[in-house]
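#struct-pred

JT: dropping the chains for the assembly here, can someone run the whole complex?
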Amino acid sequence: MSRRDEILGRIREGLRLRVHEPKRAATSSDGVRTGLTTREWLPAVPNDPEGIVETFARNCVELRTQYYRVTGLPELSGKLFELKDSEGWKLIASHRDPILDSILPSLGLPFLLAEDRPATADVERADVGITRCDALIAQTGSILLTARSAGGRALSVLPPHHVAIARESQLLPDLPAAFELLNKTYGDAYPSLITLITGPSRTGDIERILVLGAHGPRTLTIILLRDPR
Amino acid sequence: MSSIFESQFRASATKLTADLRHRSLIRKALKGYEKSRDEKKARFQDWEAARQAAAETKWEAINHLDKYLSEFADNLARRGTKVFWASTAEEARNYILNLAREKQAKTIIKSKTMTSEEIHLNEVLAKAGYEVVESDLGEFIVQLRDEAPYHLVFPAMHLTRNEISHLFHEKLGSPETDNPEELTMTVRRDMRIRYCKADIGISGANFAVAETGMIAITENEGNARLTTSLPKIHVALLGIEKVLPKLSDLALFLPMLATVGTGQQLTCYNSMIGGPRQPGETDGPEEFHVILLDNRRTHLLADAEQRDALHCIRCGACLNVCPIFRNVGGQTYGTTYQGPIGSVITPHLRGLRDWKHLSFASSLCGACTEACPVKIDLHHHLLQNRRNAVVLGTGKLDRIAFRGFAFLVNHPGVFGVAVKAGRLVQRLHRLIASSKIDPLRAWTASREAPVIAKESFRQYWKSRHK
Ligand code: SF4
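RK: done, full complex below.
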């Protein structure tokens, strides 16, 4: 018998004694199904577009994420230029993507692209990792990204500063919407890594005092891109 | 007879409850946690319904564990992950040892996993000559001190920044400082070099998603992301109880875990990993191994009364509210899993005879049950362990005492005489109470006995109805 069968056998043996099912959360006290789902239990999010943007911005402040909202590509590259100057970037790590392709060359800095498989040590030396993402989540101030949407696994965690760029249409209200999107986008062919990033890397392991930049990026910037009208 | 583990527990508990510095350190650390936990909880539209739903989801997963575990393993294998089923700690350790040997690994980097503490992985790997480094800051600190983590979630919460500074100065040669940020950066720099050269990264998992064949890892520092991204081989070690049926279940579990675990809406990084690097991806490990560990979890599963203890998501909330944990400290338990949940499950994992004492070290206040996000009936499980311990056989003295008591209360005449005698004995006893020659010292050393009333209820009743 294989190890798998052995363990599954013990599980089935153990489960022969049944236990009562707990009462249903989506059921009112008189036993009627209320039809409520996770969305109705999690923290509330306004349902108008501006309210969603505001909730997202408020969460960014709480998390110490830098958040900017820009209109059109020229304003986006202007913002990146500003960040480059104020932080003195010398090397950028990024990946192929229509928006990034049109912006990166204008910054006038050398850049590594994930598609060229740069050495880990080189990505580590970069001052910033600039990536796209799958979505932003207002409810928690999070970025949802995958190995496919954001140039692999290391780009968004190895350099000391991570800049994520999202279109305004990518801003989702809540976590259930994020998981619906994942299912719709990838169906049965999920990337090997999906990650929800909520604020810059942090630790409280020493006397529970907050320190940013424990192992991942010390600075997290999210730029929300509006289409010009 | 009390086991060696019980004697150690008693000795350590006696020492630590009297250690005011330790107590105030823990109280201070938990104060900030309580505030942010309550604040984040209040943001939920309906926390109680969320708890109920989480309990149901885990109930479904655990009570159909064979189905979901097979689904999980098959989905992982479909995308090139090697799944290994380990019945015992030894099988899991040997698998990792053989893998390291086969790949000619030298350094191994780890992100926080309590399951690896459970199977004593570090000791075995170190003995075999591998360099093993814990990358989580708290875990790294306790590793340098060569001691067990203090808490499921906050491994180094019992140490002050000065103690940590001395430690780093001594072991890493860094300058003394009382600045937590500088201490953190010392480790960041040191660890960066290790990530890049490590041959194998070992992680745990907070959840195992059956529907999609993914593990989910919750963390704040980013060390787990680096551990699972940079080395060529990633090994994830998890208990078979981690399963959730659907990917979308995480929409509920991730924010709940963060809320009661650390007082955050979500922790910084929640990563779902479903395989080694896939075609078309630019980086990531070439091999991904998942080890599913039983190690007597099926023993707990077979106990229908306590099966729900397998719902545990290791958030640590029950530890944080437990008056016993807060006074005796995490390391006193001598177990991998501390606090109320540790007291409940350790007898199943390591034997009731040796670990029954943990279930007696409880005030049964029920704070743990109230705190648990998946509604495990913790304090009743402690009572059940006590009952099971009695069935297993109690000490001779206990048995004689209870037989004597039963005789007394069944014979009213004798009982009356005994109460009268008791009043006299108690007055004499007070002269020596809690002193060295007091035969009841074990009890009286830290407590006062209630005084037997001058007039018993029966006497009072009789005098009224004359
Ligand atoms: S028993 Fe409940 S409260 Fe305690 S660690 Fe497990 S899930 Fe958290």
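JT: nice. The first helix of chain A runs from residue 3 to 14. The longest strand of chain A covers residues 219-226.
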